[in-house]
Design a protein that fits this description.
Structural class: alpha/beta
Shape: elongated
Order of helices and strands: HHHHEEEEE
Strand order of the largest sheet: 1-3-5
Number of strands: 5
Number of domains: 2
Distance between the termini: 9 Å
Number of helices: 4
Length: 175
């Protein structure tokens, strides 16, 4: 799973014109959830900590608007944000609202909330230079991971008949 460019620029004009940014759909949910999951893993290995992350069954077109699929995802993003709060990463200082209530007469997240969810994840991803890690690379030679170092790949590593040697306390991490 690769990190997918977030959508952080939704506006009231999108809502008025009812364009694609005006709606929350399954592909939006999957992008936000998977980006949060990948960013959580990168943050956890970078800080050498465990950050709570609830695995959620992906919604379908019939269940996308239901409370059970959104609240755990927001709790995951907030846990990630709290894990890095001491780093004062721009774009992560505002808490994520996680106490939405079900009901047609209850307030629902607005486009500004969704922008915040995605921009918070993206700010953390950028802080750790997430785009700098190789995604499913095919090795073109043997790799040696030295004692005391970490080598991080995203999603997989295709060995292509080459070897990865890990020396001493070196770590190979595939997110």
């Amino acid at each position: 799973m690769s990190y997918i460019a977030p959508v952080t620029d939704r506006t009231q004009a999108d809502i008025v014109s009812q364009n694609s940014k005006a709606y929350w759909n399954v592909s939006d949910w999957e992008r936000v959830y998977n980006n949060a999951r990948l960013c959580n893993a990168l943050t956890a290995v970078t800080l050498d900590v465990v950050i709570a992350f609830t695995t959620i069954t992906p919604p379908t077109i019939l269940t996308i608007d239901t409370y059970p699929t959104i609240i755990p995802m927001l709790v995951n993003i907030e846990a990630l944000r709290v894990a890095v709060i001491s780093y004062n990463i721009p774009g992560t200082l505002t808490p994520i609202k996680t106490d939405w209530e079900m009901g047609s007469r209850k307030p629902a997240p607005k486009f500004t909330h969704v922008n915040q969810w995605e921009s918070t994840i993206d700010a953390i991803w950028d802080y750790w230079s997430g785009d700098g890690f190789e995604v499913c690379p095919t090795l073109t030679g043997d790799v040696t991971i030295l004692t005391g170092s970490k080598h991080i790949y995203i999603d997989c590593v295709n060995l292509a008949d080459y070897n990865i040697t890990i020396q001493g306390t070196g770590k190979l991490i595939v997110l």
